Amino acid sequence: MTTGGSTAMDTGAIDLPENAPIEDGTLDALFAPFTPHPRILIAVSGGPDSTALLHLAARWRAGRASGADLIAATVDHGLRAESAREAEAVGAFAIRLGVPHRILVWQGAKPAHGIQAAAREARYCLLADAGRQAGATAIALAHTRDDQAETVLFRLARGSGLSGLSGMRGDAARHGLALLRPFLDVPKARLVATLEAAGLAFVRDPSNGDLRFARPRLRAMAPALAGEGLDARRLAVLARRIARADQALEAATDVAEVAVRRLDAEERPDTFSLDAPAFASLPDEIALRLLGRAIHRVGTEGPVELAKLEALFEALKAAAPVRSAPFRRTLAGALVSLRGEVLHVSAAPPRRETDLLAPNSAVDGPVVLGKKGPRS
Ligand SMILES: Nc1ncnc2c1ncn2[C@@H]1O[C@H](COP(=O)(O)OP(=O)(O)OP(=O)(O)O)[C@@H](O)[C@H]1O
């Protein structure tokens, strides 16, 4: 995304040239998250962002007497005729920089639908396996500020809650390895300028501009959005602010969990019992998060979809003061029931056809909820 009219004053960010090459003087700060790791696998597609990541990380490492060992890997998804040749070109570039490189081939059947998501999932698995085999403790990815902005828009369009709108994290974990994204605050234009200044070539994946996919469509809208002030910088600032608020709400939920959870004789490992009056006195957002945690922990279907959690929470709030009929609902493989002063969340019994027909028995009906990925 190009940047529009925002200024350092209205975003709180330090104003940097948006398309100036990255200078050596900034490398220590940029790669500070690398320092705790003895060995890092750099994920390089051969596109501009990850080529710049490899180039700059090698430059940073060469300027230090000690630090992380760098290794690099390229996943050949086998989806384009040129992919094998491009992966080899990345390998040759890495070797020139003195960085060992591996090509990881995505084998097996490729789905007809959702190919981008399947390729991403396969890529993370292959990179994590290669990283672990090589003794790496972290994978470095070249997501930029433009990617962060796109992620925020993408999730906004899909109805995400605050956790989703906080965007990608600069430090996350997956498959037992840390995921480092040192360029999350760096405009893509600066990486391209860095490569051009160093005379380095990179490939452009045509699928990045394929308007059959949602992200390229959002990318194509970026100049118009930036013209209205909704540029990458503002969206990235928004993501940071939301992440900050989200962390505070999670911390408040930790406190509420300790205060409201009943650890009495009735408590079993597969049950989460909450003091119902204390739960009802929590602010809605905290109560909702606590309920979502309970369902996620004892349920069998992964993270709960936010809209479904909200529907269940509203039904619970409506039922709580009445207590005329027992409250029992299932969501994401968990059973939520209100008995007297106790709100129980336990693993749901196996579903029967009749469960789906009984009134007040299932808010999620026959829909199978997803098992992975952030749901909010
Ligand atoms: N085929 C691949 N092999 C290794 N790493 C990859 C591959 N594709 C993506 N990555 C890693 O994941 C990051 C994000 O992927 P995404 O598809 O958003 O970027 P991209 O368009 O490939 O970016 P780049 O300009 O680096 O090529 C990349 O910057 C890179 O670090």
Automatic annotation (TrEMBL):
Keywords, sorted A to Z: ATP-binding, Cytoplasm, Ligase, Nucleotide-binding, tRNA processing
Subcellular locations according to the entry: Cytoplasm
Claim: Cytoplasm is one of the keywords in the record: yes
Catalysis: reaction(s): cytidine(34) in tRNA(Ile2) + L-lysine + ATP = lysidine(34) in tRNA(Ile2) + AMP + diphosphate + H(+)
Alphabetized GO MF terms: tRNA(Ile)-lysidine synthase activity
Domain note: The N-terminal region contains the highly conserved SGGXDS motif, predicted to be a P-loop motif involved in ATP binding.
Functional note: Ligates lysine onto the cytidine present at position 34 of the AUA codon-specific tRNA(Ile) that contains the anticodon CAU, in an ATP-dependent manner. Cytidine is converted to lysidine, thus changing the amino acid specificity of the tRNA from methionine to isoleucine.
Protein's name in the database: tRNA(Ile)-lysidine synthase
Organism: Xanthobacter oligotrophicus
